[in-house]
Design brief:
homodimer; alpha+beta; Arc Repressor Mutant, subunit A; Chorismate lyase; 2 domains; 6-stranded antiparallel sheet; two-stranded antiparallel ribbon; 10 strands; 28% helix; DNA-binding
Chain lengths: 258, 258
DNA sequence: CAGGCAAACTTGTTCAAACAAGTGCCAATC
DNA sequence: GATTGGCACTTGTTTGAACAAGTTTGCCTG
C-alpha cells in the first residue's frame, strides 16, 4: 500500500506535498473508487509528519470531494469526479492532455481593436479602449470541439503577437512570460450557434452550444482576460458533486427576465 | 465590527458555528466585497476559541471561495460567488427563496412506470423495474423557468403519492419523511428544447436549454433520484470561481464523439 | 450460533506553543 | 523628500496533548 516516504520540499509546505502525493495515488488508480486510505496513524508514520499535518492534507482532499468518510473509519476514495488543478481547468490544451486526448487549434483571427460594450464591461475598461482579441477553433483528437473568443487587456495581449497561437496554450504561454494568471470565474449557460460557430463547428445555426464565459484575473484581482468558449455539448460537459457536509462552490445564479 | 459572541452549540462543533456566523455576516452585507475581516487574534477573543479553531473556520470559507488573502494580512471578502448550501443547491424552491424570487410549480404528471434504458442506468436498476416519475414546470416569479423530469427509486418515490407536488419542494418533503438525501452529482450541458419543453416553456423547438442532470444518493451511495432539469439559459446560469491556490471542484468532462 | 459488552482502534475537535514568513508603519539617515 | 531598516503585528505551518465520539473486533454467555 502506501509505502512512499514524503520528501520535504523546501518550497512547499509538508501538508501540500502530502496532499499532492495522495492525489497522485488516486489519479494513478492505485487507490480505486471505494478503496480505503491508510489510517491517519499510518500516514503519520510513513510521511514522517504529525497528525495535524496529515489531517490538514486530508481536509484539502475532502474539500475537493476526492475522499469521504466519517468518524472512526479511514477515508475512502469517493466515486469521484476528479477535481482538476487550476491550470488544467484554465487551459484547454492541458485539459485535453489530462484526459488522454490530442488538443488542436486553428487561429481564425488575432486582432487589436476597440473593446465594444460587452468586452469593456467584463475587462473593466472603456469601450473605446484597445484590446487584443483571438478567435480560435479548438479540436479534440482532430474533431472540432469548441470555439474560443478571447479578449485580453493590452499589456498581456500584446505578448500574443510574438506567439504562435496555432502552437498551443495561450494560458501557459502567458504564465511563462511572467503574467500573473491566478484567479478564474466561470459562468456556464447555453447559447444558440451563430453563423461563425456553425461554420467552424460544422453544425446548424441555432444548435445548442454549452457556453463557458471565463474571466481571468491576477492574484490581486485585476482582470486580464475575458473569454467566451462554446463547446459542442455532445463532446464535453461540466460535472460537480456536493454533499450535505461539503458545499459545492458552484452556484446557480438567476438572471434578469429577458 | 464583529462583536457577537459565538455561542457553543452542543450539537455542532465550534468551528462550524463560527464559520456559519462569518458566512452570515458576509451574506447580510455587513462585510462587503473587499472588506477585511477581523484579525485572527480578534476572532479568537470574540469567539472565545483557540487560534486553531478560528483557522479551521476560516479554512472552510477559503475552500468555498468566500474569502481570500495571504500571509501577514487578515482575509478579505472575495468578490465572491456566494456558495450555496447543499439543500439550497438541491432544491429549486429553496434556491428561489434564497435569491429573493417566488418559486412556483405546476405538475404535469406523476406516474409509476418501468424505468427504461437511461433512467435504469442512472438509478442502477433493471430497465423493467418500476420507478416513480414526476414532470413539473418550475416558475420564478410566475415566469416559466425550468422543466424538471425526476425519477425516483420506488421506496422513496411511493411517498410522493401522498404529497401535493404542486405545493413545493420534493427534496424538502422527502427529507422531512426521513429519506437520507445526502449526496448530489450534477452534470451540466446544453440540449435543444423538445416538443414538451417548447410547449411548457413557451419557446421554439430546438431552442438551447441549459441542462442539469442531477443524481441524488444516500450518504452511503445508494441512488434515490435521477433528474433532468432544463433551464431557460436567459433566466439562470451556473457560476464558479477557482484560483491557483484552491481548486474548483467542478470538472470539465469529455464525452464520446457522437 | 447469536447477541451483547468491553477493549482497542479510528477519526473529529479543541487547545497551546513555537517558529517561519509576510505586511505595514515609523524613525533615522542620506 | 526618499529610502532603508527595525519592530510590532499578522497569517501560515508544524507539532503534540487531551478528550470526544464513532467503528471494529474479540470474547463470553445464554
Amino acid at each position: 500500500m502506501y509505502d512512499q516516504v514524503v520528501t520535504q520540499n523546501k518550497n512547499q509546505p509538508k501538508h501540500q506535498v502530502l496532499a499532492a502525493e495522495l492525489r497522485a495515488h488516486i489519479a494513478s488508480g492505485r487507490w480505486a473508487e471505494g478503496d480505503q486510505l491508510p489510517s491517519e496513524a499510518e500516514l503519520c508514520l510513513q510521511s514522517n509528519a504529525s497528525r495535524g499535518t496529515v489531517r490538514h492534507a486530508l481536509a484539502a482532499l475532502r474539500a475537493e470531494g476526492l475522499i469521504s468518510g466519517g468518524q472512526g473509519k479511514p477515508p475512502v476514495v469517493a466515486h469521484a469526479v476528479k477535481s482538476q488543478s487550476f491550470s488544467t481547468f484554465m487551459s484547454f490544451t492541458e485539459w485535453a492532455h489530462s484526459v488522454g486526448q490530442e488538443p488542436g487549434q486553428r487561429t481564425i483571427e488575432l486582432a487589436k481593436r476597440t473593446a465594444g460594450e460587452q468586452v469593456a464591461q467584463q475587462l473593466q475598461v472603456e469601450e473605446s479602449s484597445m484590446v487584443v482579441q483571438v478567435l480560435r477553433l479548438r479540436l479534440l483528437d482532430g474533431t472540432p470541439a469548441m470555439i474560443e473568443r478571447s479578449s485580453f487587456e493590452p499589456e498581456a495581449g500584446r505578448l500574443l503577437f510574438d506567439f504562435d497561437t496555432d502552437s498551443g496554450s495561450i494560458f501557459s504561454y502567458l504564465r511563462e512570460q511572467g503574467i500573473d494568471l491566478a484567479r478564474g470565474r466561470h459562468i456556464i449557460d447555453a447559447v444558440a450557434a451563430d453563423a461563425t460557430d456553425s461554420e467552424l463547428l460544422g453544425v446548424a445555426q441555432g444548435t445548442p452550444l454549452l457556453r463557458e464565459q471565463r474571466i481571468t484575473s491576477t492574484s490581486t484581482g485585476e482582470v486580464l482576460e475575458y473569454s467566451d468558449d462554446r463547446y459542442l455539448p455532445q463532446l464535453a460537459n461540466f460535472t460537480i458533486e456536493n454533499t450535505s457536509e461539503h458545499r459545492a462552490a458552484l452556484s446557480r445564479i438567476p438572471s434578469a427576465v429577458a
